[in-house]
Design brief:
ten-stranded mixed sheet; single chain; Alpha-Beta Plaits
Length: 222
């Protein structure tokens, strides 16, 4: 296992969308490993490293609320962009004011997590890419509050407050007790074939407020 970090992630709202809900947005009960990885990658990522989520600590009771969000009814078309590049007289953009619509969403509120993760070197790492080098850069960026783009809790309008936990012994104890079966949750996406991106699911179980992602992800479904 490579160099590890622990960060505390907080925010008033979060939305980790269930893929089976097609029209209205409904959040999972807790943050998904892919969303947790996205938060870390917003702070520091390079092709030479790959972040892996080890554990997720849930530090607050799970609460839901209903909101309405503005969305656009369609997305930019690749084929349309190709036609415009070839000279077609078409619009290359989506007018948000014309395509806007309101959709209901069931989101989490007042979320508070601790994410434990480590990184591993990839086959794109060069001789200068040492674990110590990348670890120190990640720590520096976390301490200084630096990021490539704003870390978010599942949606861009839900920014996350990220704090580095220097000593893992200082991780707050979760107030949640007992075992809670969260069912099958999205673990990550397989981009090995860009033309056929496949979701990967794992069976999430929370024990005393902690999800041991490292162990649970040993058995996944596609």
């Amino acid at each position: 296992m490579g160099y590890g970090i622990a960060i505390r992630v907080q925010g008033p709202y979060a939305l980790f969308s269930r893929p089976e809900m097609k029209v209205e947005r409904v959040s999972y009960d807790v943050i998904t490993p892919s969303a947790a990885r996205g938060i870390i990658e917003a702070i520091y990522w390079k092709p030479a490293i790959r972040w892996v989520i080890d554990a997720i600590h849930v530090l607050r009771d799970i609460e839901f609320t209903n909101i309405r969000r503005n969305e656009v009814s369609e997305k930019a078309s690749v084929s349309n962009a190709v036609e415009v590049m070839k000279g077609a007289n078409k619009l290359l953009y989506i007018a948000a004011t014309e395509k806007r619509q309101q959709r209901a969403a069931m989101v989490l509120k007042n979320v508070d997590y601790v994410i434990e993760a480590h990184f591993e070197l990839t086959n794109k790492a060069g001789p200068e890419d040492t674990e110590e080098k990348h670890y120190n850069i990640a720590l520096r960026r976390l301490r200084n509050g630096q990021h490539f783009h704003t870390p978010c809790l599942g949606a861009r309008e839900f920014p996350a407050k990220v704090t580095l936990i220097e000593n893992k012994n200082d991780i707050p104890k979760s107030p949640l007790a007992g075992t809670r079966d969260l069912g099958w949750m999205l673990y990550d996406l397989d981009f090995s074939n860009p033309r056929d991106i496949q979701p990967i699911f794992y069976h999430a179980v929370m024990q005393d407020g902690v999800i041991n992602v490292h162990e649970l992800s040993k058995e996944v479904r596609r």
